[in-house]
C-alpha cells in the first residue's frame, strides 16, 4: 500500500511568470544486488509475478484487509450473536443441584439448547458471559437479598465442561437430549424413508472423526453417491466415548485395590458401551441398506442395462427405453461383430486368392511339363527328317546344333497351346519339307519377339 | 477408547462393487480451501537458524505466538548460543557447548569451524588455520578423520560390566571382547554440518512439540552460490525443510524489521549492518528503500572477532596472576609452550569466556576465578568495564576503521549513514557501541534493541514466516526466483524544488538513489492560504556532504583518529558534516489549482525502464490533477 509521508514544507502560490521546466529523462538506472528478504520484497515480487500495477495491487491489498477486518468484527465481543444464551430458563433448570452435575444439561444451562453440539467455542464464550452477567451472586444479592449461588455454580460447571475439548466430547457423546430413536423404517413410504434417513445420518455423522460426512441423499441420487454414502458409514470412525458414565472413584478411600477395581470396571464398561454403539450403528446401516429404495432402483437399472445389452446383440438399435450405458454397450457389441465379420471376409478373400494362385501355378507346371514332351516330339520329327537336309547327306553338327537351339527358342517364345498346335501340325505334315514349312510358319508367327532370331527356320 | 469401528461388508452386491471407488471421491468432497488454509496455519511452526562459524542460535514461532513473535530458544543444555563444535571422545559424541572443552584435551578429535569449509574442495581450504581434527588429503570434499571407539559386538553387551560379573562368580567373559575397538572415522564437512544442524532441529522439535514446518537458515554475506547450495543440501540432509538460505545481513535487517515501521520511519535510509561474531567481522552497507534492501557494499575481516577480546582478557589475567603469585605465566601461549602453560591456557580460556559475557551483560565488575591455574596457585581476580574498554580500545578502533573503510568503498561518508544495526554477540560490549556512535553523526542511532546475538535467528524465523504465509497463491520458489542477482535501481535521487527557491539544494528527496524499480512514492505537502495555483518542480539531485567548521569544540569528538586516552582533549575547530542533496537537472513540473487548506498529494512512479510518471492533486480532488510522463 502506498503510504503518504507529509513533507516538512508549506506550499504557497506559484510565483507569477513561473513556467514548467522542460521535461528531461532521469539518469538511466544502475544495477545493485538486492536481498530477497522482508515483507516489502515479497510485495514487490507479488506485483512482478502477478503482473500487477501499483493501483491493481493496492486494490487487492485493500480488499484483503477489508476481508480480514470483517472477519475480525464477526468475532467481536458478542454483539454479533443476538439472542444467544437468552433462551427461556425453565424452573427445573434454574433449581438444579450443582452437585448433580453429571445429570445437568450443560447446554440448557448456558441457554444453548437449540445449538448443542453445533455450538462453537465462540458461542459458548458469549453465552457464558451473558449468563454470568445475569446470574452473578452479587447481583442477585443486591436484587433479592438472597444468597443463593447454586445456579451460578451450575453455569460455571457447564462452562468448564464445554470449553474443555475432551470433557465436551465426553458430554456430547452421551447427550441424552438428542433423541436417537429410529422409527420403524419398514412402514415408511420411499419419500418418508429418505427424509427420515437423512435426519438419522446427519445425527449419527456428528460422531465421525472424518468431517464432513456425506449425506444420505435424495431418492434419485446417482449410484456413485449412494455407494459413497454406504461406504462411508461401513467404515465409520467414531470419536464417541463413554467416560461420562464412569462410576466415581472414591477419592477419600485409601484402598488402592478398591480404586483399581473401580477403574478396571469403568474401563470394561466403556469398552462394552463403545462396542454396543458400534454394533448399533452397523445394524442400523444394514437395515437401511436392506430397505433402501434406491438400491432397488439401481439394481433394476443395472438389470435393464444388462438386458438391453443382450437384446442389442439380436436386433441392433431397436430399443424402446434405452439406458445410455446399455445402448452404448449394444452399439459397441454391434461394432465388434461387424468388425469380426469384416475380418472373416478378408481372411476368406485372402484364402481364395491364394487358391487361385496355386491353381495357376499348377497349370503352369503342367504346361511346362507338357511343352517339354511336345518339344521332344517335334525334335523327333526334325531328326527323322534328317534335319531337313538332302537325302543321304549327314547334317553337319553346327547345323544340328543351330536347329536344336532355334527349336528351344521357338518353344520358349510360344505359348504352351501353340507348342501343342505346332506338334500336332508337324506330326500331321510328316517328315521332310512339309514339317519344315510348318516350323517356318510358326517361327514367323512369333512376330517381333522372334524377329531375326531364326535363320534355319526362316 | 478411540478404537475405530471398521466394518466389513457382507451384504448386497451393489455395495460390494463400490468398494473400488472409495477414497478419491471422499477426499475431493472433504477438502475445502478455507478449512485447509486454517489448518495449515494452525499447524505452522517456524524455525529460524543462525548458523555461525563458532556459534549457532535458533528461533521459533509456534502456534501460540504465531502472529509474528519469534522467540530465540535455548537448547536442552540451556544454551541460547550453541557452539558449533563436535567432539568424538571414545564411544561418545559431544555436540554443541559440551564439545568445546574437549578442544583442549582432545583437539585431534574435535571438529570446529567447519561451516566456512562448506562447498569448498580440499585444495581451496587454507590448512594453516585449522587447529582441530585434521583434514583428509585424498578426498574431493574436505573430510575429517577422528579416532573413535566402536562399541563391542552386541552379543557381549549383556555383560557390560566385566568386573562385577567376575566378582559375582559368574563365568568371566573374555575381557578383550568387551573392550570397545579403537577405530577411525572419516566424516566429511557436509556430514558434520548435517549432524550439527540435526541437533538444532531436535532442540526446536522438542521445544515445539512438532517438527518445524518451515525454516530459513542464515549464511555469511560472502558465501558463494556453491556454498549456499552446499549448506542447503546439508540442512536438507538433516531433515530440515529449508525455504531459503538467507544472508546474515539480510536476516539482521528482517530481524530488526527495518523499513517496516510505517510512517514513523524514514522511507529511504542508508544503514550499516555490523556483524561481529566470535571469529570474524562482517560489515554491509545497505540502502533501505521502503523495506527493500539493496546492497551498496560489503566488507569482511576474518581475523577480527570476539576471540580478540578473549586474548586481551587472557593476557590481562595472566599478568595479574604473575604479579600476585610470582609464577611466570604468559598467555595466550604459542604451540611450543610447556604443558603446564597449555593447561593454564585452556583453563583460563573457559573462565574468561564467562567473564566476557558478564562484562557485556552487567555494568559492575566481572570476576574471573580459576582453581589451580598454574603450580597449584589459584587465580581470583576481577575486571571492570572501564578497565576492559581501555584494554580493548585497540580492537574497537580496528572495528571503527573497518567500518569507515567499507562505507568509503561504497562511495559514502559516515555522516550519510542513517543507522547502524548490530548483530553478533561481540557487539554487546557497550564500549564498542559507544565507540561506533562517536564515529557517525550524533543523531544516528546504533541499534541493538533486539539482542544482537539473537537477532539473526529471529530474522530468519520472521523471514520463514513471511515466506510461509504468502497470499494470492504465490509459491515460495517463484517469489525467490523473481529477482536475479542484481536488479535495476535508481541511480540518482529525485526530489522537489519549490519555484522561486533559493540555493542549490533540493527541498526534499522523494525517491532516493538505490531504490529497486519500479518504485512509487506518495508525499503530502501542506498548503496554506492559497486560493489559486501551486507549482512544484521535480529535479534529479546528487548526494554530497557539506563540511562546516564550527569554532566551539563540541563535547563529543566526531572523526578523530588519535584518541589514545581520555584526558587527551584537543581544543580545535571541529568539522560538522551534514549530508545534502544538490540539484543537478530539472525533470519537469506540475501545477495544480488548490482550494482551502487540504494537502497536496504528489505521486512519483519510476518505471522499470527508468521512465517517470508524476501526478499531483489536492487531497480529495483527484479528478483535478496535473501530471506528466517521461
From TrEMBL, chain A:
<dbReference type="Pfam" id="PF00226">
    <property type="entry name" value="DnaJ"/>
</dbReference>
<feature type="region of interest" description="Disordered">
    <location>
        <begin position="249"/>
        <end position="277"/>
    </location>
</feature>
<feature type="compositionally biased region" description="Basic and acidic residues">
    <location>
        <begin position="326"/>
        <end position="368"/>
    </location>
</feature>
<keyword id="KW-0963">Cytoplasm</keyword>
<dbReference type="Pfam" id="PF21884">
    <property type="entry name" value="ZUO1-like_ZHD"/>
</dbReference>
<dbReference type="InterPro" id="IPR054076">
    <property type="entry name" value="ZUO1-like_ZHD"/>
</dbReference>
<dbReference type="Pfam" id="PF26185">
    <property type="entry name" value="Zuotin_N"/>
</dbReference>
<protein>
    <submittedName>
        <fullName>Zuotin</fullName>
    </submittedName>
</protein>
<dbReference type="GO" id="GO:0006450">
    <property type="term" value="P:regulation of translational fidelity"/>
</dbReference>
<dbReference type="InterPro" id="IPR044634">
    <property type="entry name" value="Zuotin/DnaJC2"/>
</dbReference>
<feature type="region of interest" description="Disordered">
    <location>
        <begin position="301"/>
        <end position="375"/>
    </location>
</feature>
<dbReference type="InterPro" id="IPR032003">
    <property type="entry name" value="RAC_head"/>
</dbReference>
<keyword id="KW-0143">Chaperone</keyword>
<dbReference type="InterPro" id="IPR001623">
    <property type="entry name" value="DnaJ_domain"/>
</dbReference>
<dbReference type="GO" id="GO:0043022">
    <property type="term" value="F:ribosome binding"/>
</dbReference>
<feature type="region of interest" description="Disordered">
    <location>
        <begin position="1"/>
        <end position="35"/>
    </location>
</feature>
<dbReference type="InterPro" id="IPR042569">
    <property type="entry name" value="RAC_head_sf"/>
</dbReference>
<feature type="region of interest" description="Disordered">
    <location>
        <begin position="64"/>
        <end position="93"/>
    </location>
</feature>
<dbReference type="GO" id="GO:0030544">
    <property type="term" value="F:Hsp70 protein binding"/>
</dbReference>
<dbReference type="InterPro" id="IPR036869">
    <property type="entry name" value="J_dom_sf"/>
</dbReference>
<feature type="compositionally biased region" description="Basic and acidic residues">
    <location>
        <begin position="64"/>
        <end position="77"/>
    </location>
</feature>
<feature type="domain" description="J">
    <location>
        <begin position="105"/>
        <end position="175"/>
    </location>
</feature>
From TrEMBL, chain B:
<keyword id="KW-0547">Nucleotide-binding</keyword>
<feature type="region of interest" description="Disordered">
    <location>
        <begin position="550"/>
        <end position="580"/>
    </location>
</feature>
<feature type="region of interest" description="Disordered">
    <location>
        <begin position="23"/>
        <end position="42"/>
    </location>
</feature>
<dbReference type="InterPro" id="IPR043129">
    <property type="entry name" value="ATPase_NBD"/>
</dbReference>
<keyword id="KW-0067">ATP-binding</keyword>
<feature type="compositionally biased region" description="Basic and acidic residues">
    <location>
        <begin position="23"/>
        <end position="39"/>
    </location>
</feature>
<dbReference type="GO" id="GO:0140662">
    <property type="term" value="F:ATP-dependent protein folding chaperone"/>
</dbReference>
<feature type="compositionally biased region" description="Low complexity">
    <location>
        <begin position="155"/>
        <end position="177"/>
    </location>
</feature>
<feature type="region of interest" description="Disordered">
    <location>
        <begin position="155"/>
        <end position="179"/>
    </location>
</feature>
<protein>
    <submittedName>
        <fullName>Hsp71-like protein</fullName>
    </submittedName>
</protein>
<dbReference type="GO" id="GO:0005524">
    <property type="term" value="F:ATP binding"/>
</dbReference>
<dbReference type="InterPro" id="IPR013126">
    <property type="entry name" value="Hsp_70_fam"/>
</dbReference>
<dbReference type="GO" id="GO:0005829">
    <property type="term" value="C:cytosol"/>
</dbReference>
<dbReference type="Pfam" id="PF00012">
    <property type="entry name" value="HSP70"/>
</dbReference>
<feature type="compositionally biased region" description="Acidic residues">
    <location>
        <begin position="558"/>
        <end position="575"/>
    </location>
</feature>
<dbReference type="GO" id="GO:0005634">
    <property type="term" value="C:nucleus"/>
</dbReference>
